[in-house]
Amino acid sequence: MHRSLTARLPLSRYRIDRDHLSRERPHLFDELAADAQTRVIALWRGEVLLASPATSATDAAAGPALRFLPYSPLPADALRIYLGRTLDDEPDLAAGTAVVAVVLDDDAGPALEPDVALWGSPRTLGHRLGDRDAGLVIEALGIANWHATHGFSPRTGNPTESAKGGWVRIDSGDGTELYPRTDAAIIVGITDGDDRLVLGSNALWETNRFSLLAGFVEPGESLEAAVVREVYEETGLRIIDPVYVGSQPWPFPASLMLGFRATLDPEHSDELRPDGTEILDLRWFSRDELAASLGDVLLPGRTSIARAIIEDWYGGSLEAP
Length: 321
Fold this sequence. Notes:
Layout: E1 16-17, H1 28-34, E2 39-44, E3 47-49, H2 57-62, E4 69-70, E5 79-86, E6 98-104, H3 108-112, E7 119-120, H4 122-125, H5 131-148, E8 160-163, E9 168-171, E10 177-178, E11 183-191, E12 197-202, E13 213-216, H6 223-235, E14 239-250, E15 255-264, E16 279-285, H7 287-293, H8 305-314
Parallel strand pairs: 2-6, 11-15
Antiparallel strand pairs: 1-5, 2-3, 2-4, 3-7, 5-6, 8-9, 9-10, 11-13, 12-16, 14-15
């Protein structure tokens, strides 16, 4: 592996103090509302509100940025999540600024900003955001997606209410505290004795889109065991020496991607056997073959850990002609 792969994972960046102790303060949002320096980022349908389009070539080169709003006026009944405080002085925000995410419903989003071009998906543009903004939006989206699926207690069926700065939900019947959950998933770059990389095409994608193999970790399973199992189930390949290379949150809706590299067991065949359910096609690629296939073969987007691992193996950026 090339050095510092983790540093190049676009959704693993952050420059925020999550300030977890403040979540315990019973009147936290009242305090934040009274602080004129508090700023808000707005989420709507899984997208985030962006600053106005670039006004100069310098701004355009810097890429998109979040729009930071004053705490009010915003819908009083909107879900609020305390994200923490900024760590660095930047032109738009001073160090120590408190940041709150506000999750808007179908009507409130367009009322706040009707121009749909100013709502952006972190899944497609996360790699273009700065370190602070990438960290804030991925934190916000991850916790917001948890709230969206936990309006009722999985234990009792009772309605739940947001508490502790948006980081807990309380069972309205018995007072049980429910905490966010993240699904662990492995993703692996597999090479053979000739240092070729295997890529697969998922049944849910376009037929010419290829990526690394991935799957969820099962209960009672180590990460390394999950790598070996998933690869065999999806490809029929036997692999050895899975080596961890880095992780990246993937809150679409609630995963943490744990990246690995592994090698084909030389005592077993390199014949590829797609499972036919999740994986419909599999191919071995040399570096030259993959570069020559770009345009015909679509690779995962630049926000993904899959793209980072593929380009780390390749030794540089892969661009279609």
